[in-house]
Design a protein that fits this description.
Helices cover 13% and strands 41% of the residues. The chain is built from 2 helices and 11 strands. A 7-stranded antiparallel beta sheet has the order 6-7-5-4-3-9-10, with no helix packed on it.
Length: 167
Amino acid sequence: MCQAMFRYLALILACIAIWFGVQPSPAFAADHAYQLELVHRTQKNVLCSYPVDPGDEFSLHYTHSSDHTPIVDRFQVTSQGQIVLVEEKFAWYGAGLAFHPRENIDLSKTWTRTHMHRHMDPFYLRVGRVAGHSLHIEDQMTPLQDIAPGGTSLWIRVRPKGEPCHE
């Protein structure tokens, strides 16, 4: 219901803008194929969503729980609406970080970069109490503790735009 109201409001605002001669930005006017959604796993409600298209990327930034070093996981949306982990970047190798002989590892700069193509459907994440998880997509940054308390289990998924929710 909330998304339907948002779409209705967006349509009204676009009509008002056009009436007054203001052209909506391309990002606003774009018809995106999918929605990236962060869903509360137990309550099964969408906490926030972002319009995405195949090839779009987003990243999760957080601090390693024991090494206390920064980590960035970069993801991409496929043409089939799946989430693929394409890179994990970290300042220092620590427990739980991707390190496998078959992965493409770049140790040449300040960051260690592990390039991969790992399908992440389903993709679950527990909001860290001290990790400072944040979702970065285009020019937006969303601290996960702003949408759910630490310890909350989230389902990060991509769904076709306009598809009804079926949990």
